[in-house]
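Quick illustration for those who missed Monday's session on complexes.
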Amino acid sequence: MKILVTGGAGFIGSHTVVELAQAGHTPIILDNFSNSRPSILDGIKDILGYRPTLHTGDCTNPVFLTSVFEREHIDGIIHFAALKAVGESLEQPLRYYRNNIGSLVDLLDMALHHGVRAFVFSSSATVYGTPDMLPIPETAPRKPATSPYGNTKQIGEDILRDTTAMANGILRSSALRYFNPIGAHPSGLIGELPLGTPNNLVPYLMQTAAGKRTTLTVFGNDYPTPDGTGIRDFIHVVDLAQAHISTLESLFAAQESPETFTVYNVGTGKGTSVKELIGTFERVTGITIPYTVGSRRPGDIAACYADPQKIKKELKWEAKLSLAQALEDAWRWQQNSPKP
Ligand code: NAD
Ligand code: UDP
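Prediction with nicotinamide-adenine-dinucleotide bound:
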């Protein structure tokens, strides 16, 4: 199948492009490089042995989108392209709504006009807010979003549900609620390329290990968790990428199903604390991480991990790679990655 991967030069998108190609599909990358660099295409080429088609442009631009859809005969879309910094979204809400919602609306319009059959949307565990239960099943209520970024994921899910409900069964869609993607391709050829100071734990930890940052701050050790630090469900990006292939293939196979929109958690089901993650990194690399304990980061919750049973049962997908493997791969990439 020919699959349009918006945001295909980004962290999760680039890994998904590789997995799509290795599963026998033809990925078509669309990216405006607002949060990625064209050099990631070199890494993809080194892994695959060829350079996938790239369309450089913005998926909020209907003229550009029309030209892509007229040139390519797209069977399915994986829509990663979005702005994703929670703090920035509070400062620039309209930029987030325009980019994240505008791109989704325009892409769905294209999908309907060009007979696209499958659409996979990047949602997030952030839609659950502070969860009432752990692990979190898909049936847990979505909580009012605390940032415009989080709101774009909730609104995005609703737009997708409503649009595919009226698509006469041709277009089917899934929203994947990612937990905490980390790691890099085991080849060390592609990985996360944070521009500026990283906000997320693992990129910050990698840069601290590499000596680019002096100290990692652990945001709070007074949470009601066994060691007092926050707990998250860290999933290897290659596992996450493979979940997209399973989802797409199920959408193509489900052409007779009355269900036009589905939601899946994509996580390991295992919670790991910030301190445990630092300890695992130190164990697998032999590098000691200098860290201090600071105050809680506003908006952070104590614990968040997935109940991944639905995707396991319905799509036969489950996470296979360990936290140790993810951290080793991220470290390999950190040592190889181009300097900003
Ligand atoms: P990323 O920033 O690495 O990748 C996003 C890519 O989209 C970038 O290459 C960027 O240049 C591109 N892009 C953004 N807006 C665009 C536009 N209008 N037109 C064309 N290209 C555009 O982010 P990622 O971590 O790979 O995240 C991918 C998706 O997953 C996003 O939708 C994000 O919100 C979601 N998500 C990420 C995480 C995470 O922790 N990384 C967690 C949950 C959900
Ligand atoms: N965290 C931390 N120091 C950092 C970045 C993150 O202690 O420099 C903690 C954060 O408080 C949370 C966990 O690490 O408990 C994961 O944070 P991240 O930003 O990676 O992902 P989030 O779960 O917030 O999306």
